[in-house]
Amino acid sequence: MKWSKMLIQTLRENPGDAEIDSHKLLVRAGLVKKVAGGLYAYLPLGMRALKKVQQIVREEMDSTGAQEIVMPILQPAELWKTSGRWDLMGPNMFRLKDRAEHEAALGPTAEEEVTDVVKSIVSSYRQLPVTVYQIQWKFRDETRPRFGLMRSKEFLMKDAYSFDTDADGADKSYWTMYHAYERIFARCGLKAVPVQADGGDMGDSLTHEFHVLADAGEDGIAWCEKCGYAANLETAVAHVECDAAGEVCHAEIENAPTPAKTIEEMVKFFGVPATKMVKTLVYVADGKPVMFCVRGDRELNEVKAKHLAGAKVFALADFATVREVTGAPIGYAGPVRPQADVPIYADIELKGATGMITGGNLAGEIDLKNVSFERDCKIAAYADISIVQDGDKCAKCGGTLAIKRGIEVGQVFKLGTKYSDAFKAVYKTADLGENTIVMGCYGVGVSRTVQAIIEQSHDKDGIIWPAAVAPFAVVVDLLDPADAAVAKVAEDIERALEDANIDVIVDDREERPGVKFKDADLIGFPVRIVVGAKGLANGGVEIKRRCDSKDKTQIVAPGEAVERVKNLLAG
Amino acid sequence: MKWSKMLIQTLRENPGDAEIDSHKLLVRAGLVKKVAGGLYAYLPLGMRALKKVQQIVREEMDSTGAQEIVMPILQPAELWKTSGRWDLMGPNMFRLKDRAEHEAALGPTAEEEVTDVVKSIVSSYRQLPVTVYQIQWKFRDETRPRFGLMRSKEFLMKDAYSFDTDADGADKSYWTMYHAYERIFARCGLKAVPVQADGGDMGDSLTHEFHVLADAGEDGIAWCEKCGYAANLETAVAHVECDAAGEVCHAEIENAPTPAKTIEEMVKFFGVPATKMVKTLVYVADGKPVMFCVRGDRELNEVKAKHLAGAKVFALADFATVREVTGAPIGYAGPVRPQADVPIYADIELKGATGMITGGNLAGEIDLKNVSFERDCKIAAYADISIVQDGDKCAKCGGTLAIKRGIEVGQVFKLGTKYSDAFKAVYKTADLGENTIVMGCYGVGVSRTVQAIIEQSHDKDGIIWPAAVAPFAVVVDLLDPADAAVAKVAEDIERALEDANIDVIVDDREERPGVKFKDADLIGFPVRIVVGAKGLANGGVEIKRRCDSKDKTQIVAPGEAVERVKNLLAG
């Protein structure tokens, strides 16, 4: 392929809306073009990378026996109403009406659709297990689309669904996918870590997310270097020592008028550490107010809190509700004698805590000192409801947890019978009974993976593509395109590489060498071959890997170029 | 691949909503599953065929140097407003709003989007010509979705767009695509005929549709066996002899009260042939009434009429307008002295016609006899505005035109500068001037092609797949799956075929031979190998092509099966 014939545009300037390196590089290297907020066209170079990732995903899915299908993007509202998610999905789901006023969604995922399709085909245990997958565009009406392909409104996703006769079978299907995902990301040149995660609205049981560790990641992950424990911060647990273990304070509660509202201000005002403060938050769980207390140096984990409250709809209470519940101004909520009789949950760390400073639940800017949880508060339950922090002890091995950032590129879920119950997806057993199908679902963000690769593999000059997913494995920088003899050498190398099934682009533009080198580094082809009159006069062409420094450049005879490239790509 | 592991469902009954064979067979063979009206999931077998057609399209596009991209399905309204098509597309285009109330369309096509993307990258003549293509899902809010994948709401389309410096270049790009399309359909095993067609809203210049001739086709095509002339009925022209050539009638106009309204009734009532009658129709062209006259045995060609009137918005007038224009009851419009002063266009065939019977434009059920067009009517223009009929003379060679039915599977268009003007897509010329890019667009209905193949190639028992696009090239009907020795033979043949890159499915189900044969014929795998204990005892396995009759069955030793299959697939 000749550069001059390709629709390529490299840019010197970073796009104004790009916050992270991979987004900047996607646009600057001419891989994608923004059509509107959260909507990107994949240009020829970006398309090549996207197709290579797709192909890896497809091959690994096929190797597990999963069968490729494709389902409509337009999904009738009835499907979503059957599962109860028509309302639950909220404004993140694009909705529209056809000319007959039938409501439909643009699929953000396809559990409902696939269950409806598969149940109409599967009737007997003989047809199980079966796993199907599709690589299809998905849609999400993001509040604030950003980070390029990471939070876009339209994205390419591989979604697979397994159907088994029982939980054991579903377990097997789950781990088959789990291992396929390990292979997929490895083949994409990605270090992706499987981490335990929360099932959320999708199901309640076992689930792992695959994260690419990167500072630009949106998700926090608790990570134990010692034992390998890795969990999404939403579910991560640490080894917690209750405050009861510390010094006990027997003093009586004391009102402490204070203008300090935040923990930071209170630390200054009272001159005691945040570990002796209590944060109290009011939430509304399925319409009813609930209070949660964590230690002043901690943050409430909303996912854990929601599970503890057993709530489906869960959100911070508005100011009016807070005032009503506490009887106090905003910032002075506490666990002692709230105005309203609401359940109060406290973090396990607070069990037995004494001598704490809390909000007063009083009609004024008043805190309380010397609060003893067991003595002074009516706690519904003590439980782990705080977010794990850097330096916490690993609950598994006692090692030290570190908090890393991750980009989620895949997830495997055990769905159980959530959807098969809703859709009455049953099968006839061998003894002619009837049983419910047990399901799992498994996603890979295909377009997101492309960007995660860039986020994990780049330097100040541009992208450093792993060979398996590079738009082209090799770039030939033809320095003197007007010199027929030199051009012939480039042509021969191009043909020889293509014959060896190595894809190559020849930069035949009439540009200065500096421009070509800069563009090659920016786009990040794994191997660069420089073909120029001067070099040829000195006996050869220059070959260098993108990831190597300049001084590793090798000079080889043109006829040896292909072998050398093979070695470099394999190395 | 083992049949028992695949999600396959064959049906004995035709689906209730299927009107044509290919739709029935798509569903009965388990290639697709209806999700809702006009929305289909592609099951594993259908997906395999769809992917094979996709791959053929991709290879032929790539061979022309066209570059694959992919653009968002969600297209901002601004793009469509820039071209003026936001309103023109009417209710066929799905529209929705995002959470920020921005309007968008689900792309039915992508001229606007691609022009906007390409113009932002191309700035110099050096970057031209360039052709890009995508294989992407398209959307159409059909009034009445039907015929399976033929008129569905969501369909897979390959759309390509060429960008050239001038009309000559655009012409070259056009014919490059034209010939690529010939290769695509030939490789799909389709007899597709390129026919001249009308540019419609998409542009005004040269365009060809590729039609698969089939009785179930929705489009009419005029076809000259002698010279090969082929045109969509919308644009087809015939050699017309004006009525002036016949006997001349000098009699004066005469009122003829008659209860007959239709041509058929008039022929009975007056006892003269339809060729002596005139059909007069009132249309509204861009808000103004216009009248059109064709001979009684002809139908008005709305496309030709619209072009003649130079109208953008064009539709039959409502009854009130007709009464106002003619001054007569419905059914009594004519070209003589209408009530309102509106332009009257007459078909070229009526030039010089005398002794005609027309509607009276009078306040009653009154026709006129002895109408001479030149003498009695104020005709704005005579032109070809009728639909070509079976038996008309070919305008090119004088041969006889036949009317065939066709399924449109592709179309090539010269767009000129329609979109580049609207989007100011310009380039710098070699002498630093500025010029407008000249475009073309080229579509292949990928999912529709799958169905057209079935419509063209099936019999009473099922589909007869061409090998290149069959879900599997070979089915091995394993008659005694429980017999280990027999199963081993099937296994060996399966592996040998796979090693030879021939895809094969082994029907290992515990079903009667009759069921297996019926299913194999219904799905229509090109070659069937029967492996059974009885056959093996008699020296071999049975091999037969789907398209051959039973008596062509060959018995070969298992070891020879692969070679025989290769010969049959090549034959």
Map the helices and strands:
Two copies of one chain form a homodimer.
Chain A: H1 21-28, E1 32-36, E2 39-42, H2 44-63, E3 67-68, E4 74-76, H3 77-83, H4 85-88, E5 95-97, E6 103-106, H5 111-119, E7 130-139, E8 154-164, H6 167-187, E9 192-196, E10 207-213, E11 219-224, E12 230-232, E13 238-239, E14 254-257, H7 263-270, E15 278-285, E16 288-295, H8 302-309, E17 314-316, H9 319-326, E18 344-347, E19 356-359, E20 366-371, H10 373-376, E21 381-383, E22 393-394, E23 401-416, H11 418-422, E24 426-428, E25 434-436, E26 438-445, H12 446-456, E27 458-459, E28 462-463, E29 474-478, H13 484-499, E30 504-507, H14 513-523, E31 527-531, H15 533-537, E32 541-545, E33 554-556, H16 561-570
Parallel strand pairs in A: 3-7, 16-18, 18-21, 29-30, 29-31
Antiparallel strand pairs in A: 1-2, 4-6, 5-6, 7-8, 8-26, 9-10, 10-23, 11-12, 11-23, 13-22, 14-20, 15-16, 15-17, 19-20, 23-26, 24-25, 27-28, 31-32, 32-33
Helix pairs in contact in A: 1-12, 2-6, 2-12
Quick overview of this protein structure:
2 copies of one chain form a homodimer. Chain A is of the alpha+beta class and 571 residues long. The first copy, chain A, has 16 helices and 33 strands.
- In angstroms, what separates the terminal alpha carbons of chain A? 25 Å
Oligomer: homodimer
Mean pLDDT of chain A: 94
Task: Give the strand content of chain A.
Answer: 25-35%
Helical residue percent of chain A?
25-40%
Q: Assign an overall shape of chain A.
A: globular
Number of strands of chain A: 33
CATH architecture of the largest domain in chain A: 2-Layer Sandwich
Q: What structural class do helix, strand and pairing data of chain A support?
A: alpha+beta
- The CATH topology annotation of the largest domain in chain A reads as BirA Bifunctional Protein, domain 2
The CATH C-level name of the largest domain in chain A is: Alpha Beta
Please state the CA-atom Rg of chain A, rounded to the nearest Å.
29 Å
Tell me the count of domains of chain A: 3
Number of helices of chain A: 16
Q: Please mark out the parts of chain A with pLDDT under 50 across 5 or more consecutive residues, or reply none.
A: none
